[in-house]
Amino acid sequence: MRLNAILLKSTLVGALGGLLFGFDTAVIAGTTHQLTQVFHLSAGALGLTVSIALWGTVVGAIGSGPLGQKIGGREALRIMALLYLLSSLGCALAWNWSSLLAFRLIGGLGIGGSSVLGPVYLAELAPARLRGRLVGLFQINIVAGILLAYASNYAVASLIDGGQAWRWQFGVATVPAFLFAVFLFGIPRSSRWLVTQNRIPEARAVLELMGTPNSEAELKEIVDSIHLERAQRSEPLFQRKYRLPIFLAVTIGMFNQLAGINAILYYANDIFAFGGFSSLSADKQAVLLGAMNFCATILAMSVIDKLGRKSLLLIGSVGTAACLAGVAAIFSLQRHQSDLVWLLVGFIFFFSISQGAVIWVYISEVFPNRVRSKGQSLGSSSHWVMNALISGLFPLVAAHSTATPFVFFSAMMVVQFFVVLLIYPETKGVSLEQLQRRLGID
Length: 442
Known about the structure:
The protein is 81% helix and 0% strand. The chain has two domains: 1-187, Growth Hormone, Chain: A; 238-442, Growth Hormone, Chain: A, CATH 1.20.1250. It starts with a helix and ends with a helix. By secondary structure, it is mainly α.
């Protein structure tokens, strides 16, 4: 019974971390209209308000790895929880635009840090038989957090009149952020981190606590793998033999955002407003997008090993390109509102079953063990930097022509189709060693 309680508690912590990640990423969508009015924001200023959190995410993602190695994932996640709490309270109480930007930046640091530390902590803590499920649960809870943010925005807008709803929409996150911080004091350190600190007896105790079968054998594997990593740590990433994996990681990270996914998620209410929806109705339609994102992600996780990574990317490229072209046509021709809703729902479906599900799996597969962490960091950085750039520029471009961003996103998905078709290898059912040979890595 004690084993089940510890595993359950650890799972809840991972779930809350993922929920906060998704919630803090998407909650801005419900506030953009009011923020523009309250702080008299230009299109460029609105883009900065949204994107500044993403620049914080880049810094948080880069800096959290060394922090986690130094003090441990659990302690580093406690810092992320405090950043979430400070950001949600600060945004809710912001006294001017500058203070809002500062607290948004702080929230971005928490998002970036937890995006790296959360899955790593769960992977290191869990017994091997549960590792894949727990790490997958983190991704599911990110999209659940996005759905919760949209639902929360709609509920707050329905209950609170006037120009103060945005404060409550930001402030809702203080509750899960506080619970996240509290739960982190009731779970153990990672056994793997303890081994890196030569605290072997404590690592053994954690493995036994988590119900690891043959804990001594797993402990020996951890010790051996860490010795190997230390021996290979000096291996540089930017070498000619890694040129194809580097290209794959960088391009899949960039294409993930060139689809326009986060621009659509962050500016969902504005996009629906462009289509003629009222503010409250836009909040309601955003919930529909979040629900499709959640359901399609679960579907993708069930078929990714059956259909394959490359196949899903090709299917997604065609589907997203068609839906985005349809959205562009609606804004150019001023067609019916219902068409806009269902095209965006279709886009979310095709994105979630392809790029959304494949990106992190694919990046982790194309690099050999000796440079995998560096390769994942590179792919993640290309993803977050492109996210920040597109999210910052979207209002500026849309202010001149609402259709133009969607024409661009659709064209990028056509480019992605041919890049994937001609260059990307299929990694389904291929061992990492076989894949390295296919990629020309010695």
